[in-house]
Amino acid sequence: MGMYEQDGLGMFHGRLVLLGALGLLGFLALAGQQARLSLLQGPSLREEAEARLVQLAWEPTVRGRILDRQGRVLAQDRPTFDVRVDYAVLSGQWAEVWGVALAREAHAGVWRQLHPAQRDALARAHEPVFVEHVQRGLAELALVADVPLEDILASRDAVVARVENIHDRYVSRRFEALLERAGLGEEAPPDAELAERLRAQAARPVAEQRRPHTVIGQVPDAVGFAVLALRERTAVLETPVLDLDGRPTGVVARVRLPVLPGLEAGHARDRQYPFRSVTVGIDRSTLPGPMRGDGFQSVTVTGTLDAIVGTTRDRVFEEDPRRRRAWLEHQASEQERAMALTERGTDRGRYMEGDHVGHAGVEAQLEHGLRGLRGVRIRRLDTGSETVFERAPGRDVTLTIDALLQGRIAAAMSPEIGLAIAQHWHGDINARRDDGRFLAGAAVVIDIETGEVLAMVSTPTPDPQNPAASAPPPESAARDDWSDPRIHRAAQAVYPPGSIAKALTLVWAASRGEQRLGERIPCTGHFLPGRQDILRCWIWRPQYGMLTHSTQLGHDPDEAESLMVSCNIYFYELGRRLGPARMLEAYRAFGAGQPPIDAMGSAAGILGSWPVDPSGNPAAGLTAVDAALMGIGQGPVAWSPLHAADAYATLARGGRRLGPTLLRGDSPPPSEDIGLDQDAVERALQGLWLSTNDRRGTGYHANINGRFERYFNAQGVDIWGKTGTAQQRATLTKIVDGVPTPVTASYTHAWFVGLVGPKGQQPRYAISVMMEFAGSGGRVSAPIANQVVHALQAEGYLPGGQRPDWAGGL
Question: What is the SS3 assignment for 201?
Fold first, then answer.
C-alpha cells in the first residue's frame, strides 16, 4: 500500500509539475503580451487614453485685413452663412445606424440569438427607407436655397471622396508609425494577430468624419435664416417592419425625424476684396493729339491688385499642414510659437476643413500672420478642469501700394483710353504690332526716399470668373505664351533693358576709372571697323539718312549728350572697356540677378551666360562683344520693370541702394552704398534731363501725323528719363494675310524709365513703363509714363493736376 501511495504521490507531484508548467507558460504568454503592450505600444495606448480624457471646443477666428498705404481695405473677412450637413448623413452612415436600430427594436426578443450575418441582412433590409428620407431632405434643401439638387449631390460626393481619402492616408501613416514604435517593419514584420490589432487601432475615425461639411457655401443671410428654419422642421417617417426573411409583417413603425438630419447653417467668413474693381477718370486733354479730347473719361478696371494682394481658397491641401509645421519649427519667433501652441502642443492655427488658405500674393506669403489663432476650451473629463485660450484675430497687413494710384495707372493702360492699343504712328517695323491690337505691359512707381512701391501695374489682368486664372503662371524666363495674363509683368517677367541701361553703364564706367567725365567719343555709325551690319547706332539707318550723332550734333557727344540722343556707339565703347565681368558687376550692384521683393514672388532676372555655365561663373564664355552689348542693355541680361525703377531710384540717391519694399511697418531695408562717383551721377542726371527737356532728346517729342507732340505735358514738375527699345527674339502670333500665324523674329519691347519731382526740386519718384513687343519706347511708353505723372498729381503726390470727385473703389 505504501508503494501504491508513493506511486500515487509521485503521479500527483507529476501532475502538479505539469499544471505548474502549463500555468507558467500561460503566465509567460500574458507577461509577454503585457510587455509588448507596455513597452512597444505603451506610448501609443497612453496617448489614446489621454486623448479620450480631453475634450476640445474650438472657436473660429478672423483672418487679418490687407490695407493700402492710405488705410483703404483691400481684403477683409465678411460674416456669412455656410450650409453644412453632418458627415454621417452625407456618407450614408446615419441611414446604416437607423437601419440597425429599427431592425433591433423590431426583433428585440431574438436579436441576441441571431447570427451576425442575419443581423446585418435585417439591418440592410430596413436601411433604404432612411436613405430615401435623406434624399428627400436634400431635395427640400435645394428648394429652400434655390440651388440645383445636382449641385448639392455633387458637393456631397466631393466631400465624401475627399474625407475618405484623408482617412485612408491617415490610417496608412498611423499604421506605419505604430509599426515603427513597436520596432517592426519589413525586416521584422508583425504576426497576423498583431498586424490586425494594429490596423484596427490605426483605423480610428479622423476629425473630418465627425463633423458637418459645407454643401452650399456663402449663402445670403435670407437663405441662411431659411435653412435654420428648415433645420427645425420634422417629419413622421413610416416604414414597414420586416420579418426574419425580409417580408413585411404588416406592422408599420412611425419615427419622427428632422426633415434633413444633421443640417445646420453655420457662421462662416467670406473673403472680400473691395478694390477688385476701381472706377477712375482720365483727363483726355492730356493725351497725344490723335486721342486728345475734352473732359474726363470714366474707366473701370478690374483685378489690378489681384496678383499683389493675392487670393485665398477654402480647401486645405495636403502640403498646407506641412508648411505650417515647418514655419512653427524654423521660422516663427518664440513669441509666435508660445501664442500658437497649447501646453499639450496643440497648434491653435492648425488647418481645418473649410479654412481660408492664402493661395497667391501677399495672402499666401504672409499666411501664418494673417490667418490668426482659434480660441479653444480644453476640458479634462476625469477632473472637470478647464483651460481657455481666447481667440487671436489675424494681424492686419498694410501695403505700400496706393489702390487709387494703381487704378489710375491701370486705366491709362486700358484699351478704352487707347495708349495701349497699337497705332500706326507708333511706327516700328520690328514691333509685334497689328494696328488695333491690345499691347500688354507694366508700370511701376517707387518712392525714392523710402524704397516703397506706390504702384505696380500689369496688363492684361486675369479674368476672376475663369478658374484657370488662379493657376500658377509659367516660369517667366522661358515662357511660350506671351499673352498669358497670369504673369505679373511688373515683377514676375523679365526683359532686355535696352537703352534705359545706358545711364547705369555711364556711372559705373566713370566710377571705375574707365570713362573720364567730359570725354567725347566719335559716333561712327557702326562700332566694329569693317562690319556695318552689326553693333550699329540706331540713327545710322537709311530712314534717318545714315546719320551719326557726331554729324547731328556738329561735334562728338560727351556723356550727357550721348544719353540725350541715346548714342549706341558711346556705350558700346564703355561696355567694351569694362568687359563682361565688370558689366555684370554693374547690373548686379543695381539689383539685377536677385528677386527685388519676396511678398509676391518676384523674378530674379537673367544675368550672365544662359543657361548658366557649369563652372558657375556668369561671365564664362562671354566676349568683348557681349560686354559692348550689355553696355546698351542687350546681350546676356534681362530684368523686370520693378528692377528698372529700383535701379533709377538708386541712381537718384547717388548710389545708395535700398531695394524696393511692398510692406509698410517693416524695418526699413538696410541701405548699401554701391560706390558711385557723385560727379558722374550728376552728369547722368543731366543727360536724363536733356533727354526729356531738350528738343534733340529721344524722350522729348515725336512726329505724330505730321505734327510734333511733346511726350510730357504735366505742369509744375521736372522729369528726368530715358527711352529704350529693346530687342528680343521670340515666336509670336501675327496676322499674316488675315490668318493668325506663328512668326519667329527679333521683336522690340518699348521702355521708358525716369524720375519725377516738383519743379525746381530733387527727384521724388522713380517710374518705369514697359510695353511688351510694342516698338518704340518714346512713341509707346513715354505717353503712358506721362499719364503716370498725371496720376501722381491727381492723388496728391505731386503738385498740380485734378481729379473728378467720383473716383473710387466699387
Answer: helix
